[in-house]
Design goal:
heterodimer; A: 490 residues; B: 486 residues; alpha+beta; Arc Repressor Mutant, subunit A; 8-stranded mixed beta sheet; 3-stranded antiparallel beta sheet
Chain lengths: 490, 486
């Protein structure tokens, strides 16, 4: 097994035992990026020199046996929506072409403090708006399980990097499923923590009340390790929670015996592929065999989550993206004759079609005379969805369902039909609106393409969610599945 | 008032929006310094106040406190629940493309402000006091219409700004001016704003409309901006009353618009009509959780409120016997009221101190555009001058000359001494009588001094000065006292 195929946990042991150095490990991953990077197009920028410099520093720490954490010396990829000091950070958008922030996101600072190694900035849908990574302002990402397939989105680059061996782990961001859906489509583990669990400072905003940063990893243990590092209150983010951060590894292996797990009937949506439905039912049965009590539950407002999301998220985005006006940084159109023209040309040329569509949707929803009918109404729906989850969690400890109704679809298949594209997130969106946490764990293959099981737990109960996910992963043994791209060059 | 009635047959309706920068060390949502006037351009900026991608605001509690303090001083209700909202519009001085402000749940509402016009008390309702962030400042190359380029300085961006909105209760330009003067005094009294209108730290916009007397509905409202003095507020409103009257009298219709006051030309110019009015698309700021304003916190802030101008005015009338008019003017500025009270505390009679401060002193200060606290004449100087007059040492005419000499000099001491010196008692023979009387009347202090208490001598000298009504030469007096006692 090559170093780049391993998990954080394995590699941590190896680094401690001096079986490998962080520099050797980093070179192994960088070498694999060289080998398959042209196929996946997962990275927008590989920070080779930074990575090797950090790896050397990590080796010093490991040698000196000081300040070592499970992430010391581990090569990690960062979604391009995360600001890294002195490293170009564009959120996958042309309008931020060349933008180099003078500060790092809080999560980046935390990883850096632990001695993690930054491989580079991963590709994503522009400003995290999309479900296939085809909205990247630069180029699409290809799924390591089938290069003609999308990796999902918007954290498609991070998912593809982890699935192909181009990163040991990655950070993504999830506003309506942008971590979980690509994780499902690439056979990786992707977690959206509860809103407020992880600081958003330095995360280039899409929809502020929904965005959350989370780990994308090869297995559930790694997911817990990475969350442990990034979770917790940040004085720079007033929406980050002061809720204590538990030791996620402490309860991980407690199993599901005696647990009550709910299956929302609404999550078996129309248009779900039979193979996906089959895999989910198999997964539920497996957890039942592990001792969990399974019961059907109802989340009656699930069907209006998607339309509510497509009011709230674009409304916030229309405001968040107003700052990209060409005045202070990023792309600036040339040849404008006056201020208004400058604004219009810069934004017309700098933003892609989907971003413009959402800015228009959001501007409309907030405009005078429509606010009550759209934005206010959508907020009421959001309250109903929060209530749905509360009621369900009075009866059960966690919820089970598919992450995506389909496996990875071919590139270009849905680009002409925005609504079909939006439907990809139909089962992931409620968790964002409902202030709960969710994780996607591989639960099978259909025609060689991965399927993801979604586990949802109440707000700030990530330990419960991880416990269920780990129990399933251990029993199912899909953990050993590797994408052809990870295997091929091995 | 009578003059205006001749100008307009309509009822004038004015409401004011006052923006006051809050005196905090750091900005509204970040840790940058608020000192934007002296710092080099864009020196006091950071990712937050520049609106760089991924940056997030953090509320400055001190600014919230100042807003609640102001609201309490204006008799407002403080709701238990408040939030910030985003006001969306594009302008190069607005780095995020939205201003964090407050829309439907401000920190306060339903207050009132009492002020005096020609000795009569009026009351104006306060709709709300809310908190928002200031914008940056553009500097155009030449006139704005022809400018080929503009520069932007973000030092002011994110400076906390209170907006104090009045009800449309004001009926004349005089009332509007007096309202702002009283408001400014209150803001200074409670230490939340420095009252500087010239540099824009206190700004005032006026909504002016006319309607036939007896009509309930408001007329078409015109918002007037860019007034940076009390005089400008008064002139701009008077100008609008005349302009609107002329339009209505000619059978014309007014348009709802924003007009800018041009102080040099003495007129208002249309800036923006309602058809081009912005739709600000207000919505709750998702980066800031709503605020719960606990009753304990409000009580704590209330307990630290100082005596306000109205109360101080009442106290000066009741305890010092000032006329209501003198008391009003003296308390309209906190530094002036403090100057007055200090002068009285040092021993000057209240009426004399008030006359000096409101008379020659104010005249000189106004002519020089100076504030009383910046004058070289301090309360102690003024008190001594008054003492010289009261004791008959100098005549009223001489006092006026002496005061002017004191005011003009960087150090008023010599002029005061000169006035004293003209009638100073330095002769030992004359002083001996005073020294004897002091020793006879202050046995205990004399004993104390003999026992080694140096302080006692100071007291005895003071008594001697008092007996001589300030005319004794202090050095000689001290020498003679020491000699006599020992």
């Amino acid at each position: 097994m090559k170093p780049y195929q391993r998990t954080i946990r394995d590699l941590h042991e190896m680094l401690l035992d001096r079986e490998i150095s962080s520099v050797e490990l980093t070179e192994s991953v960088l070498g694999h990026i060289d080998a398959v990077g042209d196929k996946t197009k997962a990275y927008l920028l590989v920070t080779r020199e930074l990575a090797l410099r950090q790896a050397k520093a990590a080796d010093d720490r490991l040698r000196a046996k000081r300040d070592i954490t499970p992430l010391t010396g581990i090569p990690i990829a960062l979604k391009d929506v995360l600001c890294v000091k002195d490293v170009v950070s564009t959120a996958g958008s042309k309008i931020l072409n060349g933008f180099t922030p003078p500060y790092s996101a809080t999560v980046v600072d935390r990883l850096e403090a632990e001695g993690a190694v930054f491989l580079g900035k991963t590709n994503c849908d522009e400003f995290a708006m999309g479900s296939s990574n085809e909205n990247s302002g630069y180029w699409p990402v290809h799924n390591p399980w089938g290069l003609d397939r999308v990796p999902g989105g918007s954290s498609g680059g991070s998912a593809a990097a982890v699935a192909s061996g181009e990163a040991i782990a990655a950070l993504g961001s999830d506003t309506g499923g942008s971590i979980r859906q690509p994780a499902a489509l690439t056979g990786t583990v992707g977690m959206k923590p509860t809103y407020g669990r992880v600081s958003r400072y330095g995360l280039i905003a899409f929809a502020s009340s929904l965005d959350q940063i989370g780990p994308m990893t090869r297995d559930v243990v790694d997911s817990a390790l990475l969350l442990q590092s990034i979770a917790g209150h940040d004085p720079l983010d007033s929406t980050s929670s002061t809720h204590p951060v538990p030791d996620y590894l402490a309860t991980l292996r407690n199993g599901v015996k005696g647990m009550r797990l709910g299956v929302p009937k609404e999550y078996f949506v129309t248009g779900m592929e039979p193979a996906v439905e089959q895999a989910i039912n198999d997964a539920i049965r497996l957890l039942e065999q592990q001792g969990a009590a399974i019961e059907e539950v109802s989340l009656p407002h699930s069907d209006v989550a998607l339309p509510a999301y497509y009011i709230i998220a674009p409304a916030e985005a229309s405001s968040n993206l107003a700052r990209y006006d060409g005045v202070r940084y990023g792309y600036q159109a040339e040849g404008a004759k006056n201020l208004i023209e400058e604004y219009m040309m810069t934004r017309q040329q700098g933003f892609g079609a989907e971003v413009k569509r959402r800015i228009m949707l959001g501007t409309y929803a907030l405009s005078s005379g429509y606010y009550d009918a759209y934005y206010l109404q959508a907020q009421k729906v959001r309250t109903l969805i929060i209530e749905d989850f509360k009621r369900a969690f009075e009866k059960v400890d966690a919820l089970l369902g598919a992450t995506s109704p389909t496996v990875a679809f071919p590139l270009g298949a849905k680009t002409q039909d925005p609504v079909a594209m939006y439907l990809n997130d139909i089962i992931t969106i409620p968790a964002n609106l409902g202030n709960v946490c969710g994780i996607s764990v591989p639960c099978g293959l259909a025609d060689g393409l991965p399927i993801g099981l979604q586990v949802i737990a109440p707000g700030f109960r990530e330990e419960t969610m991880l416990q269920v996910a780990f129990a399933f992963e251990s029993a199912a043994d899909f953990r050993k599945l590797q994408s052809p791209l990870m295997r091929a060059a091995a | 008032m009578r003059a205006l009635e001749a100008v307009t047959p309509y009822e004038v309706v004015v409401g004011l929006e006052v923006h006051a920068q809050v005196l905090t060390q750091s900005k509204m949502f970040c840790w940058c310094s608020t000192n934007y006037l002296e710092a080099p351009p864009n020196a006091n900026t950071c990712p937050v106040c520049l609106g760089l991608p991924g940056s997030l605001p953090v509320i400055n509690r001190k600014a919230v406190e100042a807003t609640i303090r102001t609201a309490l001083a204006l008799n407002c209700e403080i709701p238990e629940f408040s939030k910030f909202d985003r006001k969306n519009y594009f302008y190069p001085d607005l780095p995020k493309g939205y201003q964090i402000s407050q829309y439907d749940l401000p920190f306060s509402r339903h207050g009132h402000l009492d002020f005096d016009v020609n000795g009569e008390t009026r009351r104006c309702g306060i709709t709300r006091v809310h908190l928002e962030e200031d914008t940056g400042k553009l500097q155009h190359e030449g006139a704005i219409e022809q400018a080929q380029s503009s520069l932007v300085n973000f030092n002011r961006a994110g400076v906390p700004l209170m907006e104090i909105v009045s009800e449309p209760d004001l009926r004349t330009a005089d009332e509007a001016r007096e309202y702002v003067m009283r408001l400014r005094a209150i803001l200074q009294y409670i230490g939340v704003n420095n009252g500087d209108m010239e540099s824009g730290q206190l700004r005032c916009d006026a909504n002016v409309s006319l309607r036939p007397f007896g009509q309930k509905e408001f007329g078409t409202k015109v918002e007037v901006k860019n007034m940076n003095s009390f005089r400008a507020i008064h002139r701009a409103i008077e100008y609008e009353i005349v302009r609107q009257t002329e339009v209505l009298d000619a059978g014309g219709r007014l348009v709802q618009e924003t007009r800018g006051w041009n102080d040099a030309r003495g007129l208002t110019v249309s800036q923006r009509t309602k058809e081009f009015a912005e739709d600000y698309r207000y919505f709750p700021e998702p980066d800031l959780p709503p605020l719960e304003v606990s009753r304990e916190w409000v009580a704590e802030i209330r307990s630290t409120l100082p005596e306000l101008p109205a109360a101080r005015r009442e106290r000066l009338i009741a305890t010092l016997g000032l006329s209501p008019y003198d008391a009003s003017v003296l308390t309209s500025s906190k530094p002036m009221a403090e100057y007055f009270e200090e002068t009285v505390r040092l021993g000057a009679p209240a009426k004399a101190a008030a006359n000096w401060i409101l008379g020659d002193f104010s005249r000189f200060l106004n002519a020089d555009h100076k504030e009383i606290q910046d004058a070289s004449v301090k309360p102690a100087h003024l008190q001594q001058l008054i003492a010289l007059i009261d004791s008959g040492v100098i005549s009223g005419k001489m006092a006026k000359e002496t005061f002017e000499a004191m005011y003009r000099a960087p150090d008023p001491g010599p002029a005061l001494t000169a006035a004293k010196g003209s009638s100073q008692i330095s002769g030992d023979a004359e002083l001996a009588g005073i020294v004897d009387q002091v020793i006879a009347e202050n046995e205990k202090s004399v004993a104390d001094f003999k026992a080694g208490k140096a302080q006692a001598l100071k007291f005895l000298i003071g008594q001697g000065m008092k007996l001589s009504r300030g005319r004794a030469n202090p050095q000689r007096l001290e020498a003679l006292l020491q000699e006599k006692i020992s």
